[in-house]
TrEMBL record:
InterPro entries linked: ABATE, ABATE_dom_sf, Znf_CGNR
A Pfam family reported for this protein in Swiss-Prot or TrEMBL: ABATE
Ranges where the Zinc finger CGNR domain occurs: 135-177
Protein known as: CGNR zinc finger domain-containing protein
UniProt lineage: Bacteria, Bacillati, Actinomycetota, Actinomycetes, Kitasatosporales
Domain of life: Bacteria
Gene source species: Streptomyces lusitanus
Amino acid sequence: MRHAFPGGTPALDFPGTLRFRHRAEPREDLDSPVSLGAWFREAGITVDDVPAGPADLRKALALREAVHRLVRAAMAGEDHDRDALDLVNRYARKPTPVPQLTPAGRQVDATVEQALAHVARDAVLTLSGPDVPLLKECGNPECSQIFIDRSRGARREWCAMDPCGNKIKAAAYRARKRANGLLTAGRPGRPPA
Ligand SMILES: [Zn+2]
């Protein structure tokens, strides 16, 4: 599967793997250990998929939700949840993946724990750095993706045009057409469309 990386950094994209958190039923992108292993590669943390098992996935989801809570608290200017803070800091102290140059190019040997340590350190750096005021949630009411808005004038509205920006713009277009249709129908001497 192809994961999405609109957040600008792993600390935002990893929580984003539980998509549409504002829906009654969010969409789980990390629905298997294989999907988790692929995420690390697609995020650029490793070169190959990381071998993962069910226990790895459970740990990854626990860390993901802890990172998510810290990001939300940072955006709201609230104190961090102690348990979330402890978990993220515990992972941030662990060894991270080690890149090596080989005749075949870059090689990164990593366990799930090391890859999660990379995400945790990124959360520490992101949430203590200059990007915190730039954190923004996607303008699609169903979408809960948070991204770093580095656009000029901080005018970025969507995590990505596809699907969020396109979906909202299409809905606005239909609403305008409906409004125009009502006006047209009210005019005398015009056949209904
Ligand atoms: Zn979005």
